[in-house]
Amino acid sequence: MFKLKTMSVAVAMMVAGSAWAATVRDEPIQPIQPAKVENPAKVELGKKLWFEPRLSMSGIISCNTCHNLSRGGTDNLKTSIGHGWKAGPVNSPTVLNSSLAIAQFWDGRAANLQEQAGGPIQADVEMNMPHTLALDVLQSIPGYVAEFKGVFGKEQIDMDMVTSAIAAFEETLVTPNSRFDKWLKGDDKALDAKELAGYTLFKESGCVACHNGPAAGGTSFQRMGLVEPYQSTSPAEGRSAVTGVDADRFNFKVPTLRNVEMTYPYFHDGEAATLEQAVDIMGRLQLGRTYSDDEIGKIVAFLKTMTGDQPQLTMPILPPSSNATPRPDPFK
């Protein structure tokens, strides 16, 4: 009897899955799926580290400073401001749905979220905290020592453990259930006529050649300025800084369009202040097409339908420092 019940449940799940798949429209953009949390304790530790300002030399900058989860996973600045009020060279990309990207950073120099997580901690224009000192801070806090032991099985904390926990938390930062996703799943009332016209124009213009998949982007590197040169004062060279190949100059990771109404300003240098400006520039420079104001309005209306459910978080209570914890130096 037990085997028969098990088979019945399995068949039911297959039927349900097939029914769900059958309702999803055949489009170049697919729905975002909810996060699956396999290790809640690791995710909770990663969340604490995400909001932990003691991982910065100043004691006031955390991952959330530049990737504010209340603001679409960005800071809404042209380029981020780091330690000592230093201005970074590029716009801070959203962390939301970043687990769906082909690589991390605009130039793709980090292969995955864990590899990315350690960079900003020690970067002098960001958190300016040597990894050795960051580990000394965490190791001196009894609450963290106990939590790392519970998750990783050992008391001696290393950077692989730190970045693995942060990455586990970042993997939960997905935004399903946008109105566009509901339309993709068969809800004809999810989009109005203007929004649907905008999506049709978006597709017919060729935008989906780069902005496709669940994240509507993030899966390729493309040259900024295919038809017309892109003028920028940013020192960022794009993919060539990683590959050393001159042909990769000004090739940047295609950004996700998920939650794009929240992640202004746009492009690697933050030069496009509004969605309307971004659509106009992309049309002319990438497609050789000058959109009318009406066409821009339709595309922007569509883009705003891709704002999904934002991560709902309980703010973590960080463990207190001990007398042995190295103190921050905001002016170093």
Helix content: 25-40%
Query: CATH top level of the largest domain?
Result: Mainly Alpha
- The helix/strand series, from N terminus to C terminus, equals HHHHHHHHHEHEHH
**Would you tell me which CATH topology of the largest domain applies?**
Cytochrome Bc1 Complex, Chain D, domain 2
Low-pLDDT regions: 1-20
Give the full name of the CATH homologous superfamily of the largest domain. Answer: Cytochrome c-like domain
Please outline the major beta sheet: 2 strands, antiparallel
Mean pLDDT: 93
CATH-scheme architecture of the largest domain: Orthogonal Bundle
Tally of DSSP helical segments: 12
Structural summary, described in words:
The protein has helices spanning 2-23, 40-50, 63-66, 113-122, 131-139, 142-152, 159-170, 179-184, 193-204, 240-243, 275-287, 293-303, and strands spanning 221-223, 251-253. The protein has 332 residues and is an all-alpha fold. The chain folds into 2 domains: 40-170, Cytochrome Bc1 Complex, Chain D, domain 2 (Orthogonal Bundle), CATH 1.10.760; 176-306, Cytochrome Bc1 Complex, Chain D, domain 2, CATH 1.10.760.10. The protein has a two-stranded antiparallel ribbon. It starts with a helix and ends in a 29-residue tail after the last helix. Mean pLDDT is 93; it is low at 1-20.
